[in-house]
Design goal:
The protein is an alpha/beta fold. The chain is built from 15 helices and 17 strands. The protein has a 6-stranded mixed β-sheet, sandwiched between helices. A 5-stranded mixed β-sheet has the order 14-13-15-16-17, sandwiched between helices. Strands 10-11-9-12 form a 4-stranded antiparallel β-sheet, with helices on one face. Helix 3 packs parallel to helix 7.
């Protein structure tokens, strides 16, 4: 019988406060951004668990043990990410053992699993990987189906500790498969919290807030707040009620009101991306797509093919960065470039029409612009981008200016081009 099965659920402490510990020198040096903590914070919020804080810790055994001792006095749940690898600076399992006052024990079943992991990939297992089969005595393993770093679960004095890998894909899989279901059973009693996310593109966060008016006022139930990333605005709807039926009814009513207010600005829900929505729309209609990119340098094609099954609708494209490439590969008339310049509405239209014709696609999207930081003028400033969407009987071109950095202009242009496709398909 496992330790978890032996725990009397009636005597368990109600879990409603959590702390996240992110371990790794690379986080403190700024070489790596701690995306794990942000993702976990969102999942804890969805469960109605209060997050007391996030701490970034170095690969230092004494610091980790001291911090575990401190947070154990404050939090019911402690989530630790990182430090479960096979190298000398991966110290989480050793720190947890010292915190508990126990030794590390070799688990033959875990060692066999790690050996199978390498054998399946036809790779030799380094001797250092053996440490990943060691757990603090009395702890439980958390399965990692896509990596070698076994997770650790420990329950002590009513608190529960989960040690997860630092690799984001492995951490998310382990949390979703194992940790989240348990936490859902441990949360405090009281008003039920239900959350819903709507994804928007095409207006700024302040513009959307103005459209929603007092719906984003603090203290409302349901509450509506927003977060922004690369031009994508996510609206979070949070409803509290005494039962699931009532909370979900509140969420549905609020979502209907938001959709009526924002219309085509809303492109998806929960974790949906623009490319997923556009891809599904193309596939549903049986339409094909080609791209012609200049300033975005292939980013549109990359985003489209990030979606599994994109070959159902995406035929391919051209990165025509130079004028010569636009003329040779897309048939843009040289006189058009000479008269209007490569960054212009006529050239964007010619690029889109040329790509559609050459690929024999139903639709084509094209971008041409000045991503900077140099190359702009008073008439054509840095950040100027033309985006064209061509179909059989017409071509629509729109002009945008984004006063951002070069990477930000390119990303915003690529996302906007995909959004232009979405709007065209919607209308």
């Amino acid at each position: 019988m496992t330790m978890r099965a032996q725990t009397d659920s009636k005597n368990r402490r109600t879990a409603n406060k959590a702390c996240i510990l992110s371990i790794g020198n690379e986080l403190l040096s700024g070489l790596t951004v701690d995306t794990n903590a942000a993702w976990l914070a969102g999942r804890l919020a969805d469960l109605g668990i209060d997050l007391l804080g996030v701490r970034l810790l170095p690969d230092d055994l004494e610091v980790i043990v001291r911090t575990l001792t401190e947070v154990a006095e404050q939090a019911d749940i402690v989530l630790v990410t990182g430090g479960l690898g096979p190298t000398d600076d991966d110290l989480t399992r050793q720190a947890m053992a010292r915190f508990l006052g126990v030794d590390l024990e070799l688990r033959p079943d875990l060692l066999a699993r790690i050996e199978r992991f390498f054998a399946h990939r036809e790779r030799p297992m380094a001797p250092t990987n053996r440490i990943q089969a060691h757990l603090p005595a009395g702890s439980e393993p958390l399965d990692n189906p896509i990596g070698t770093a076994c997770g650790i679960r420990v329950e002590r004095q009513g608190r529960v500790f989960f040690c997860l890998p630092g690799v984001p894909s492995e951490m998310k899989r382990m949390f979703s498969d194992t940790v989240e279901p348990e936490l859902a059973q441990r949360v405090r009693t009281g008003p039920l919290i239900v959350r819903r996310r709507l994804r928007c593109f095409g207006a700024g966060e302040s513009d959307i807030a103005a459209l929603l008016g007092d719906r984003m006022q603090r203290g409302r139930n349901p509450l509506v707040n927003s977060t922004a990333s690369s031009g994508i605005i996510t609206l979070h709807i949070v409803a509290q009620a005494e039962d699931t039926t009532r909370a979900q009814a509140m969420i549905r009513a609020e979502e209907t009101a938001l959709r009526n207010l924002l219309g085509e600005l809303i492109f998806g829900e929960e974790e949906q991306t623009l490319t997923e929505v556009v891809g599904a729309s193309l596939a549903r209609r049986g339409l094909s797509l080609a791209v012609a990119e200049s300033c975005t340098g292939g980013l549109i094609g990359k985003l489209l093919t990030d979606v599994p099954g994109a070959s159902r609708y995406f035929l391919g494209g051209w990165i025509t960065y130079s004028n010569e490439a636009k003329i040779r590969n897309l048939g843009v008339p040289e006189a058009l470039i000479r008269t209007h310049g490569a960054v212009s509405e006529p050239v964007a239209e010619a690029m889109a029409r040329g790509a559609r014709q050459r690929a024999q696609a139903d639709l084509a999207v094209a971008t041409t612009g000045i991503a900077g930081p140099e190359g702009g003028s008073e008439q054509k400033p840095v950040g100027l981008v033309y985006i064209a969407v061509a179909e059989a009987d017409e071509c629509r071109v729109r002009r945008f200016v984004w006063p951002y950095s070069r990477p930000a202009v390119r990303l915003r242009a690529a996302l906007t081009a995909i959004n232009e496709l979405r709007l065209r398909l919607r209308n």
